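Sorry to interrupt, but I need a hand with the structure work. Can you supply me with one protein entry, sequence and fold together? No commentary is needed, just the two lines. Leave the record below and I will have a look.
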Amino acid sequence: LPEHGDLAETIYRRLGPPDDLKALYVSKLRATLSWEAFPSSATVEQNAKIVRSLNAACGAAIKERIGDDEEKDQIRRQIFQNNGLCHHAFFRRVDHQVANIGAGRIVHLPGEGAERQRIYDAVTNYVHSLGSWLAGRTPEEAISIWPAGEEVARRVYETLGESTPVKRWLVACLWKQLQENQAHNGRGALDEQPDLFALPAEALAP
């Protein structure tokens, strides 16, 4: 697969020279990735059982080798924390796990925290823009409250157009869902400056 040469070089560089423990970690990671790729279907259940068995065997062999080494056990545990192929950070987490295996400990990758900041910004900008539209503010009024969200505000207002009862109901549902979806992970400015983004009670009226 010559088109993936850069990826292969990065993986080999991060893994470093092979050894038995790394081989077990990589086998476990491969088994986990294979399991993630299986659709939820009875037709693949037998293959899924094989992958689960391989995953468990690799995990047990790793545990036997590392004993009570807490840091190395973190590497083993992290391999389970990919949250599925649909997760926005799935491949970033795989990159991190490869680097951890190569280093034999938990390491930091360049750009760490950038994706979380992107989510903070996106949630704040969209919640504010949708809320402002519900409140009947003009785009300029929304931007004056939160200048950092200007691009999103203009796009949201242009896309939504004139208010209708159905639009208001759908936008209110989306506004509520966006706030609640990331509440347990933190939402940046929404949490830091709640009064700035508060809506008047009538904004959510039908």
